[in-house]
Amino acid sequence: MRRAGELACGETLQESNGNLSSPGFPNGYPSYTHCIWRVSVTPGEKIILNFTTMDLYKSSLCWYDYIEVRDGYWRKSPLLAICGGEIRKNEGQIQSPNYPDDYRPMKECVWKITVSEGYHVGLTFQAFEIERHDNCAYDYLEVRDGNSDNSPVIGRFCGYDKPEDIRSTSNTLWMKFVSDGTVNKAGFAANFFKEEDECAKPDRGGCEQRCLNTLGSYQCACEPGYELGPDRRSCEDKDECSKDNGGCQQECVNTVGSYVCQCRNGFVLHENKHDCKEAECEQKIYSPSGLITSPNWPDKYPSRKECTWEISSTPGHRIKLAFSEFEIEQHQECAYDHLEVFDGETEKSPILGRLCGNKIPDPLVATGNKMFVRFVSDASVQRKGFQATHSTECGGRLKADPKPRELYSHAQFGDNNYPGQVDCEWLLVSERGSRLELSFQTFEVEEEADCGYDYVELFDGLDSTAVGLGRFCGSGPPEEIYSIGDAILIHFHTDDTINKKGFYVRYKSIKYPETTHTKK
């Protein structure tokens, strides 16, 4: 294009008005022509360009011969005179024709957006004003998830409310703007960009529990009972009991990842799990320590009574039951009134003891973090009953399965720092032919150059004579740990000075072919 009467192909124009035409107009333009005109006027004024004649070779998406108009002085200024097109860029802006002024009637513009392979197309709207209609039958913007008019419809939009952010499922997005012959509005402006699903990566964006992908970014989230730590990636146990007693009528006990309401002796938890009602002799206990007594204690227990206690504690800690008072009808085989203690969560678990008589029994210790206690009285003799304290002991033998299990440094992990002067040993064992994987989710142990004060020490075998896998303190091992054999011994030692949060580790059995201890 050039000013009428001149042969120049492209120039800088500064007049307030004038005419432009392509080289050779009206007799046809030559081949392989590339002309650039720069038009500038007085600052504060706008430039209006009206086409009176247009006859260019027509090709799909103006692929061959075309005229391009940009809003600015340079080659990378925003395109103005384009209605649709095939866009192969990782970011940019799309506007309705003539935006921000009203779009023209009888327009149909189609954009096909393609970003780099392996990404999605993100679309956000900065402005939106298209003739309103319940079904968007007149003027509208249609967006499809793909590269053609046969792709699934994401939405057809009109009115004055900006659409929600849009994300394609592939690296292409198809858009069509249509206006009829009547009402015209300001139209729309939208930004597109390549969108990455960080949550689909192997490390899930570094999130410990849940990763939520958002347009242009992502955020970490936690399972119920946990809350995000200061780094906004790790999850920490939430103390629900610190606010309004967790909604519990009597006692609130914080557990790892949750909380439970408990009732004082003589009451049991209501079906709503928060209120208490008079005991019917069935209790579920989740606190690390507490007191259980026979019904009607310290008076004689009633006849024809059966009471049960299901005691649960933190994974990796054994439940201990110690008696301070004991008086139950004597019988050689405890066939009448008796107290039974089981090594597990039901009466089908292995039995630790069937007790009666007047002698205070020795303490009973479960092999895991579950214990079931049952008291039975018959119709005849009644005695004073019993009083016992349940508590926890760290350490023990734990079986590893392909499904991850959890182990905590101390029973009140999340509520209190670990205690002083502790020596705990856990023996983790997998099936023969399998190995063990350890992954520390939380590790805060007193820091010292040689880990001589508080530490966690790992051995690749059944006892401390096995090959050492490392002694750790501070922030702990940076990556997963793998055994060579089918057992790992964990030794946790603390002195009597500084106490920290402790550790929380997940362990499982695996078929692991390598012979190294750490993941490469």
TrEMBL record:
GO terms (BP aspect): proteolysis
Annotated PROSITE patterns: ASX_HYDROXYL, CUB, EGF_2, EGF_CA
Lineage: Eukaryota, Metazoa, Chordata, Craniata, Vertebrata
Domain (CUB) ranges: 9-80, 83-195, 281-393, 394-510
Organism: Sciurus carolinensis (Eastern gray squirrel)
Identification of the protein by name: Tolloid-like protein 1
GO molecular function term, any single one: calcium ion binding
SMART domains per the UniProt record, alphabetical: CUB, EGF, EGF_CA
Record's keyword terms, sorted: Calcium, Developmental protein, Disulfide bond, EGF-like domain, Glycoprotein, Hydrolase, Metal-binding, Metalloprotease, Protease, Repeat, Signal, Zinc, Zymogen
Matches recorded under InterPro entries: BMP_1/tolloid-like, CUB_dom, EGF, EGF-like_Ca-bd_dom, EGF-type_Asp/Asn_hydroxyl_site, EGF_Ca-bd_CS, Growth_fac_rcpt_cys_sf, Sperma_CUB_dom_sf
SUPFAM superfamilies assigned to the protein according to its UniProt record, in alphabetical order: Growth factor receptor domain, Spermadhesin, CUB domain
